[in-house]
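User: Fold this; tokens only.

Assistant: Input:
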Amino acid sequence: MRAVRLLLLVLGAAATAYGGWLLLPQLGTALPWLVGGPLLHDVLVAPIVGLVGLVLGRLVTDRLRRAWIAAGMAASVTLLLIAVPLLWRPPSAPPNPGLPDRDYPLGLAVALAVVWAAIAVVLVVATTVQRRTDRS
């Protein structure tokens, strides 16, 4: 078992060194992204997520409902992160006539609406089931 771990350690270190070697010529343009991403997360994203979680914990007392709302928020943030490059700048390649043009803001809005509609349906069904079981 130690030999396998040592082999994986050596392979991982070699892959990391090779990746670093490939990154060296582009370090000037990549450095703001390598530093800015974690810095933006620690200064802006993490405190906002913490505050939203604190408020959500105070407003929604049922753990199951809170979990579904948190799942909807996580899915929404994931969709927003995926959409940022598409919304932020125009495509870097010329348009392909074989592919239909997309309305990315509309697509994002529809995806978010589907996520929150599904969460709303789950919460309504959970509330209905809970009320029926409380009556019995």
